[in-house]
Specification:
Elements (H helix, E strand, L loop, with lengths): L1 H19 L11 E4 L2 E3 L5 E2 L2 E6 L2 E7 L9 E4 L4 E4 L1 E6 L36 H4 L6 E6 L6 E9 L5 H4 E11 L4 E3 L10 E3 L3 H20 L7 H4 L2 H5 L3 E6 L2 H13 L5 E5 L7 H6 L4 E3 L15 H11 L4 E3 L6 H4 L3 H10 L4 H7 L2 H7 L16 E4 L11 E6 L2 E2 L5 H15 L1
Parallel strand pairs: 1-6, 2-7, 8-9, 11-14, 14-15, 15-16, 16-17
Antiparallel strand pairs: 1-4, 2-3, 4-5, 7-18, 9-10, 10-11, 12-13, 18-19, 19-20
Helix pairs in contact: 9-11, 11-12
């Protein structure tokens, strides 16, 4: 009896989720001209009293509103407001988990250690409640990334207004994700073990396993074989340069080892994710043209020897030394916290990153890291019209109030299950 009740509740949960999801917008038909706002272009530049026009999903004009040019289609007066490119969430798990307690709805990680053939895109739920709740804060694109194992699988990049994963994808299977082991470990305090850090005796062995797998993969992909080995075949893009290898790693030694071993294997297209300690190896990063995706700053430093504000100032330190930096979502409650992406950028700005550079971290620079900067990330003629209008500073939660948002020129809904509840209970208290 209880089993049947649970099944019924589960069906209602999934049906309710689908019904709550806003219908994706139709293809852009009407052109738009937005004038008078301050335009943050996503490349470090600003245009006061700007004019942005777009049609057929592409930006057709970016310049001053004083320019004598015919406005296209519907004109939106936006004096006193701000325009931004759509924010891009890196290393996110949006759409991969719907109900944490229901295993059937959790596709964040797969069984196994070496899973380069696992594709996050086919598990992505474009109708997730979490996906729609990102848009009112300006997060309009995301890199959907698997977790778990030594090699987690392959990520893809999506826009956040679609019927299904095919419609959502803007770059498929962009990268493979590798979790690098740590050279230090700590005891399991919950079992009464000493929680202090100590050298990890398994570190060399764990590196050998990764090195051995990737060496086998390189050899497999360099010869013709009638035997199909899915995990090894899935790594081909790492060796021909068509895919990036995202290495999730902390520590100066670990970052150095990961880069050197990858270079020896002929894998040159690398990105460091998390990257604590990266500020100590900037020469190595710059000489190999390796960007860093930092973890969210709202957390404690890993080591008691670190400065209290280490997680806030690391972006400034890396950027000043010439490293390309983005912001990743990895961490506790990452799916829910992805909506706070602009405020993480705002925190880095409060701790030394120039304001427009902070905007660039989650727009133009994020697009460069992902390899989609040819059509996304900045407000430039010819690029996708994925942008939004905010009443104020979008990096400040007090003024991030979005009135209009567009994905590839389509005006999207900013209603979510959260705004529905807000309106419902606002009316309740008014009635009382």
């Amino acid at each position: 009896m209880m089993k049947n009740i649970f099944k019924t509740l589960l069906i209602f949960a999934f049906v309710g989720n689908i019904l709550a999801q806003q219908t994706p917008a139709s293809k852009q038909i009407t052109a738009f001209s937005i004038e008078g706002a301050t335009a943050h272009l996503g490349n470090g530049k600003i245009i006061e009293n700007s004019l942005i026009m777009f049609a057929d999903g592409k930006i057709t004009f970016v310049g001053s509103a004083m320019t004598k040019i015919a406005r296209m289609g519907t004109t939106i007066k936006a004096e006193g407001k701000h325009i931004y490119p759509g924010f891009i969430a890196l290393d996110a798990t949006l759409g991969l988990v719907e109900i944490d307690a229901v295993k059937a709805s959790d596709d964040e990680s797969e069984i196994g250690i070496m899973n380069p053939h696992v594709r996050s895109l086919i598990a992505y739920n474009a109708e997730s409640k979490l996906v729609e709740s990102m848009r009112p804060n300006g997060v309009l694109m995301a890199q959907i990334t698997p977790k778990g194992g030594a090699i987690s699988g392959t990520s893809s990049i999506v826009q956040l207004d679609a019927w299904n994963f095919e419609d959502a994808s803007i770059k498929t299977d962009d990268a493979i994700h590798l979790n690098w082991p740590g050279s230090f470990t700590s005891g399991r305090w919950w079992l009464g073990e000493d929680p202090a850090l100590k050298p990890n005796s398994e570190y060399p062995k764990n590196i050998d396993k990764i090195n051995s797998f990737l060496t086998d993969a390189k050899h497999y992909n360099s010869v013709k074989s009638d035997i199909k080995h899915l995990p090894l075949a899935a790594t081909k893009g790492l060796f021909d340069g068509s895919q990036k290898l995202y290495i999730h790693v902390n520590g100066q030694k670990e970052i150095t080892d990961a880069i050197n071993i990858s270079k020896e294997l002929g894998i040159k297209n690398l990105v460091i994710v998390r990257g604590e300690g990266a500020e100590k190896v900037t020469d190595l990063l710059i000489s190999n043209n390796i960007p860093v995706i930092l973890s969210r700053p709202h957390r404690n430093p890993n080591s008691e020897d670190d400065a209290y504000d280490d997680t806030y100032t690391i972006a400034k330190n890396l950027i000043e030394k010439g490293v390309l930096v983005g912001i990743g979502m990895e961490g506790q409650m990452d799916r829910m916290n992805t909506r706070n992406l602009p405020f993480y950028a705002g925190t880095f700005a409060a701790f030394g990153v120039e304001k427009e550079k902070a905007v660039q971290m989650i727009t133009g620079d994020a697009a460069k890291i992902l390899g989609i900067d040819a059509f996304a990330g900045t407000l430039e003629v010819g690029k996708d019209a994925t942008l939004f209008i905010s009443d104020g500073d979008a990096l400040d939660m007090r003024t991030n109030q979005i009135s209009d948002a567009y994905i590839q020129g389509r005006k999207i809904s900013l209603e979510t299950h959260q705004t529905t509840l807000w309106k419902r209970y606002s009316n309740k208290f008014k009635a009382e």
